[in-house]
Amino acid sequence: METTIQVRGLTKRYGRSTALDGLDLSVAAGEVHGFLGPNGAGKTSTIRVLLGLLRPDGGQVSLLGGDPWRDAVALHRRLAYVPGDVSLWPNLTGGEVIDLLGRLRGGLDRHRRTDLLERFALDPTKKCRSYSKGNRQKVALIAALAADVELLLLDEPTSGLDPLMEAVFRDRVADAARQGRTVLLSSHILAEVEALCDRVTIVRDGRTVESGTLAELRHLTRTTIVADLAEVADLARVAGVHGLSVDGTRLRCEVEPAALPEVLRRLAEADVRGLVSQPPTLEELFLRHYQGTGARR
Amino acid sequence: MNPLAGTGQLVRLILRRDRLVMPLWIIWLSVMPANFAAAFPALYPTAAERSAFAQTSNANAALVALYGPVHTADLGGLVAWRISIVTVIVALISLLTVVRHTRTEEEAGRRELLGAAPIGRYAGPAAALVVVFAANLLLATAVAAGLAGQGLPVAGSAALGAQFAAAGWLFAAVGAVAAQLATTAAAARGIAAVGLGAAVAGRVVGDLSAHAGGPLGWLSGVSPFGWVMRLRPYADDAWWVLGPLAAATAGLVAVAAGLHGRRDLGSGLLAAGTGPATGGPRLAGPVALAWRLHRGPLAGWTAGFALTGALLGAVAGGVGDMLTDNPTLRDLFARLGGAAGLVDLFLAAMLGLFAVGATGYAIAAVGRLRVEETSGRAEPVLAAPVSRSRWAASHLLFALIGPVVLMAGAGSTMGAAYGLSGGDVGPTTARVLVGAFATLPAVWLLAAVALALVGLVPRLAMAGWAVLAATVGLDLFGALLQLPQPLRDLSPFTHLPSLPGGQVSAVPLVVLALLAAGSAAAGMIGLRRRDLPVG
Q1: If you count Cβ atoms within 10 Å of the first and of the last residue's Cβ in chain A, which end, N or C, has fewer?
Q2: Is-contact A148 A108, C-beta < 8 A?
Q3: Is the dihedral of CA B377, B379, B383, B388 positive or negative?
Q4: What residue of A is the nearest CA neighbor of B275?
Q5: How many CB atoms sit inside 10 A of residue B513's CB?
Q6: Contact B316, B420 (CB under 8 A)
Q7: Would you call B480 helix, strand, or coil by DSSP?
């Protein structure tokens, strides 16, 4: 598998505080990769290292087969970037900024530009000083999506968009993926990640805590089981069962994937009358990693 | 709700944020007059010497332009005369501080956060004005106490302090109005600084014209800065001027309040309109972007330089006539080259002032790099295939070429306006232009030092202004304070030839240019090697 982004053991310190502490990230060509983590986990620092804006203190970083610090200019011809906090020149109009950024990259697709302006419902004649956060974000998104590039680096690109525009964004990223572009999407919106991403990497405190496909990650999480029983079932001693609570004949617990056969066998023996099983949600997975309690088992 | 509710809390916030800078400038500015009061007796011990010095100074157009005329030849009068230029600095600091705590806050969005708290509509500007007014009163008291403590007349010392405070109050109010007119802090600073510049230019041209018996003496009377100077500490102690000055200040504050009460948060009187939906074909590349960002300020500065140059050139013709009946002075002037030589000296001194202004422009242009960096606007450009060197060079270009344009503007109009009086416009303009361009190596060196700061110690990038302030301080007051020559030689301006009229030696100019190239290279290397952005 061809890798577009390969980061190993990346470290970055600002004075005495450590922003990145041995972070790993691997993004294959053509995939949409979710980049998740709580605020201050090091997502933006990682993306800035990938852009050659920050010089890493340690570790290996390769981007599109090059060194992002040394080959910055050449690599930037092949990528587009949307920052999380878009700041634009107050006396230029949105349309001017889109064209300026496009031309810096060697020109943009006029047809796609018109199409995106329409889809995102952006008025390009307004001066950037009068745009709201969401509209500034649209300017950066249109400039990036209209560019003919291999890689899109998107740092929380939808944090200011309304739900309607977020749908347009998802649709356009899916379209970019269909055209074979690679996307690194840093986000907090899990529904967005679930809808778009092939694989995700979760980081915390500058370190990678989990990486894999969504299916693989779900596999790591627990299924919630609620059962009505005729007899008492003894699950307390089964390895991989958590949060067991018994209220008369009603039982509730969280079960790791490996323990499921054993739990189901015991429930059957206890003459189960009603059973509700809830698949693990991404939310739960992230909450556990974000809070740092009970992570990594 | 009380429209001033929360002013006290905002005052404390401003004091907390300025707890270092504000005491520094108050102390610095209040120590200066006392220093001068100690320096003059050392240089001119007897009353006769002081009187002779006052006469020479009043006959020297360049000094009249810089400091105005000496009104009384006693020690207090000389201190008041020499310190008058510091009044401009007090006014400038006051207006900048007001803008910093009003429009800058609003532009950055921090005012919005406070606006949601139970804070009255006028509390923001009111707090900024209260702090600046109080700081000026403190400064006035310190100045008066310091001078009176050195044995100078109490009334005159108080008047000198009041002169500082009056200038500070008036231009703080100008800053408050400018902050209401513009939507960006940069534009507000520009408007207020143009107001101050115009007032000072009116005083300079008016004083020069009055001294040479010209027709423009009334300009000093209509310039608010001329009113401030009309106080004439130790000579007239004309306290009544404070009446119209206070009225003007109150009027400006009322205008600012009226504008502020009528507008939405974030808006200004000079509103942002719409523009083209697509970028014109020339809006391609970092230089085109830099041109869009720099062209407005550059046009404004050039217009200001050209206009001031024309005014100074128009009065320059009278400079040679400013001769006195005093025979010793006449001998001195004859040795300086007679009337023509005096005019040349005056033109050269004015070009030196323009060069300081052009340096200010250049440092601001270099500072753009840092503004773009900290605002996050550098990121999308550098994430495109644009190298850091190219990005930095696009702004450095304006820091280097801008001063050329400015000095050409000032030099050509000053030369032409002066040439008109003698009927030799072409040759005079050419001579003055050569002098104007000869100042450029010093301007470039200070711009390059500012770039080195941005590249190597980005958090101290604003220190470029401190370097300029120190340089100007050495030039203006180094001789008076009898500072050692090697220290005074640190100012690049001291190494410039006195043109037109003086001798030219290529070596200092080449050395300055080489130092500039070295500093710029160091800055560029620093920029290429460091993290970007550095917060």
Answers
A1: N
A2: yes
A3: positive
A4: A125
A5: 16
A6: no
A7: coil
Whether residues A100 and B283 touch (CB distance < 8 A) is answered with yes
Which of A55, A73, A125 is facing B274, going by the closest CB pair? A125
Tally C-beta pairs within 8 A across A and B. Answer: 118
Single out the residue of A79, A102, A85 nearest to residue A43, CA to CA. A85
Closest residue on chain A to B368 (Cα): A89
pLDDT digits (tens, 9 = 90+) for B376-387: 999 999 999 999
Closest by Cα among B255, B257, B294, B244 to B399: B294
Nearest to B130 by CA among B267, B24, B253, B231: B253
Please count the CA atoms within 13 angstroms of the CA of B411 that sit on its side-chain side.
28
Distance CA B479, CA B106 (A): 43
The residue ranges of every structural domain in chain B are 1-270
The 3-class secondary structure across B419-435, one letter per residue, is HHHHCCHHHHHHHHHHH
Instruction: State pLDDT tens for residues B7-63.
Output: 999 999 999 999 998 999 999 999 989 888 988 888 888 999 999 889 888 888 888
Handedness of CA B463, B467, B469, B473 (dihedral sign): positive
* CB contacts, 8 Å: A81 with chain B: 379-380, 383
The Cα–Cα gap between B513 and B524 comes to 16
CATH of span A3-211: 3.40.50.300
- Is 0.90 exceeded by the ipTM? no
Domain segments of chain A: what residues? 3-211, 222-279
Helix/strand number for chain A, H first, E second = 10, 13
| Residues near B387 by beta carbon (within 8 Å), at least 6 away in sequence | A72, A73
Instruction: Please name the residues in contact with B486: beta carbons below 8 A apart, sequence gap of 6 or more.
Output: none
Of B292, B384, B532, the CB nearest to A53: B532
Query: What's the half-sphere exposure (Cβ side, CA atoms, 13 Å) at B532?
Result: 31
Helical pair B338-375 and B425-438, crossing angle rounded to 10 deg: 50
- Provide, as residue numbers in chain B, all residues whose Cβ is less than 8 Å from the Cβ of A52: 382
Helical (H) or strand (E) element with A276: strand A272-278
Binding-site residues on chain B for chain A (CB distance < 8 A) = 183-184, 272-280, 283-286, 288-289, 292-293, 296, 375-377, 379-387, 529-533
Euclidean distance between CA atoms B440 and A9, whole angstroms:
50
* pLDDT averaged per 10 residues in sequence order, chain A, 297 residues: 89 92 96 91 94 94 95 94 91 94 89 96 92 94 94 92 94 95 90 89 91 80 85 83 85 86 89 85 72 45
With CB atoms and an 8 Å threshold, state whether A129 touches B272.
Answer: yes
